[in-house]
Amino acid sequence: MFARTPRARDRPTTIRRAEMSISAPTLPGLADEPRNGIVNVATVPMRSPFRYPGGKTWLVPRVRQWLRCTRKPFVEFVEPFAGGGIVGLSVAFEGLAPKVLLVELDEDVAAVWQTILNGGAKWLTDQIAAFPMSREAIERVLSQRPASTRARAFATIVRNRANRGGILAPGASMMKLGENGRGLSSRWYPDTLCKRIREIAALRHRIRCLQGDGLALLRDSAGRAGAVFFIDPPYTVAGRRLYRHNDIDHSALFAAAARLKSDFLMTYDDSREIRELASAHGLDVREVPMQTTHLRHKTELLIGRSLDWFTG
Ligand SMILES: C[S@@+](CC[C@H](N)C(=O)[O-])C[C@H]1O[C@@H](n2cnc3c(N)ncnc32)[C@H](O)[C@@H]1O
């Protein structure tokens, strides 16, 4: 049977939340903790309105471990490359930080967050509930130039559900067979989507989204105390195919992270370039096993100042 490590078991759960204003955070149960190093993603609540390529649902239990152990008190959890935002959402829903900031450069993706968090959730759920999912209806929505942030958000949700792998990058194709050959409607769960959007909107006092450059934000945040940064940029190889914005200066990103006064956790693909950058900045690196959506086992990297909390 899986046992919690003594480190986590013995630690009073209140210590690291000294600055947090919310009470009784929902601590996850043992079932969420990795077994044989691999997280069972079915144990992590699905909260994002996106199916996001490169999404980090599988990392949520590790982030919980990290936040329980981080030494400096924090009031804001910052995700400078937010994408589908499952990590920031989990932090907000579980009360692991009083505030969450999502930053995303892609205007389409950011439009979804801003619509949900800035009063447009009802409008968006009404559109989703009324949408007659079909190839013609999708083409109609996607052929129009969105006239508002809300319209952009709705078109993005439709495209995210219709495209293969949820990929929103230019050139991504629409899926043909869908799940079990059920075609386009196989990824269209309007009730579930609306429920998730309403739940996120209910937490809007705790979550905000900025559309902009996560690297610039990190540079500007060098001297900032009271935050923690979860940094999940487009990966060096796969990022090109998956995201409209994928051209990150990884060397500059490492330099900005290493200058942060606050604690941070980065995730990356396991490549020589990334290991060399981590080593050049004196950062700690751990390999973390994961299972892809195609059930392939693969290793990714966690990078931070000290990853002693990581129990493998
Ligand atoms: C690996 S994905 C993040 C996935 C996310 N952690 C999740 O679980 O869904 C990287 C994201 O960074 C965004 N991005 C790329 N360049 C950016 C930049 N300079 N600033 C902010 N976001 C950027 C991409 O659009 C993409 O959504």
Helix content: 25-40%
CATH homologous superfamily identity of the largest domain = Vaccinia Virus protein VP39
Kindly estimate the percentage of residues that lie in beta strands according to DSSP: 5-15%
Unreliable stretches (pLDDT < 50, length at least 5) are 1-31
DSSP, total strands: 7
Structural class: alpha/beta
Silhouette: globular
User: Quick one: CATH class of the largest domain?
Assistant: Alpha Beta
Name the bound molecules: S-adenosylmethionine
CATH topology heading of the largest domain: Rossmann fold
Please give the alpha-carbon distance between the first and last residues. 16 Å
Radius of gyration: 19 Å
The domain tally reads 2
Query: How does CATH name the architecture of the largest domain?
Result: 3-Layer(aba) Sandwich
The tally of helices reads 12
Instruction: Tell me the strand order in the biggest sheet.
Output: 3-2-1-4-5-7-6
Query: For the residues shown, what is the average pLDDT?
Result: 86
List the helices and strands in order: HHEHEHHHHHEHEHHEHEE
Largest sheet: 7 strands, mixed
Describe the structure in your own words.
This protein is 35% helix and 14% strand. With 312 residues, the chain is α/β, with parallel strands linked by helices. It has 2 domains: 164 residues, Rossmann fold (3-Layer(aba) Sandwich); 88 residues, no CATH class. A 7-stranded mixed β-sheet has the order 3-2-1-4-5-7-6. The relative contact order is 0.15. Bound molecules: S-adenosylmethionine (SAM). S-adenosylmethionine binds next to helix 3, strand 2 and helix 9.
